[in-house]
Prior knowledge:
The structure is a homodimer of 209-residue chains. Chain A is an all-alpha fold and 209 residues long. Helices cover 71% and strands 0% of the residues of chain A.
Amino acid sequence: MQRVEEQNGKFDASSGRSPEKHHRILQAAIEVFAENGYFNSRISDIAKKAEVADGTIYLYFKNKEQILMAAIDFAFTLFMDAAQTQLAEIADPRQRLRRLAALHLESLGANRGLAMVFQTEFRQSAKFLAQFSHHRLIAYFDLVRSIVRDGQMAGQFRREVSDKIAANCFFGALDAMVTSWLLSERDYKLGDAADAIVDVILTGMETRK
Amino acid sequence: MQRVEEQNGKFDASSGRSPEKHHRILQAAIEVFAENGYFNSRISDIAKKAEVADGTIYLYFKNKEQILMAAIDFAFTLFMDAAQTQLAEIADPRQRLRRLAALHLESLGANRGLAMVFQTEFRQSAKFLAQFSHHRLIAYFDLVRSIVRDGQMAGQFRREVSDKIAANCFFGALDAMVTSWLLSERDYKLGDAADAIVDVILTGMETRK
DNA sequence: CCTTGTAATGAATGGCGATTCAGTCCGCCG
DNA sequence: CGGCGGACTGAATCGCCATTCATTACAAGG
């Protein structure tokens, strides 16, 4: 059934044949990495979870490191696309930040494995696999910063707060929330915390009425 | 010269003989881990940097993992002790948070290697080496939370912001700042950012005048 | 029903590096 | 001075696992 696509050449050059299998491996990898961490994960574990032979993985990915890269890239792209779409409908900077925060927490809250990978492996990669994942993060920061500047121009946010600092506080607060949630019993919905956090950060940035 | 201490039995049972050597190994480990990350670091690298034979390390530490634990523990203890001392002199909750933030950034800003270990390896350990380092983090959070509650009782902070959320924002903002700094060119003093960050967070928590 | 090309398999390989341990060195005591 | 005890050394070991590749399975076309 997955033969259908074989005619067109629309596959990523470096990735095997069946997109379905490619995706299954990626999904398995995220779960395995989340469970054990990148370095404690064995390719054979990923293969087993994806119901594929060890060697097959190398038809789809160059090596172990590239699997991690692909997983992060995949998730990040998904997130940024969703952000793009959802924010397109909102004009007010305050509402835009609210929406973004909710999306941030909901995205990670909906997929524990992904969240785990982001809170641990992603940081590693940001430093050691260098510019690749780092740029994705910068794109996110830049988005926040531009919203902040819009709010400042509209007179809603204080101008003496630099957009860089504001973005840092925004991202940091959400990020810490995700980490706490992961380390906790997870008996609450992560997304539910968005409002309270945004409340603090927005209040800290807003001009007094 | 390090023979002097040999008479008393004040050594950590599990750690070799000379405290000076113990410390040198720890210091070397922090630098090596910071440079390459825990998993990409070789014991022999640490040994070389500490000017010690590979085997000697095992006279002072049970295994590689325990070196990381010891390094984190050491740094964290130092930090919490400093916090304890410095905060003892300050009563006002707002000032206490300011001081704590400054200390947080100054401590990590003064030692890039340590900061690196905290931003990357510590998170790993928090999840995978479980309760050990996790507790240290909780201690920090609890400190912040208690300050927040004090501020609420004194009527300085809004009561509708939960202390947990406030601590999250506080820690998260600082933490993100450290990460940015590490990934950036580091052409500014990390400690200098403390005021701007605390400004946002405090304003977000304060009652309106 | 052969032939061929390609995906998939999984056992075997090879290298790496944590850990060990047989030996060395050195200070001290009798 | 000889012998003991313990710190220190670093080369050798040993297990692990990413990666490879000879082999198999299979689809499509003739």
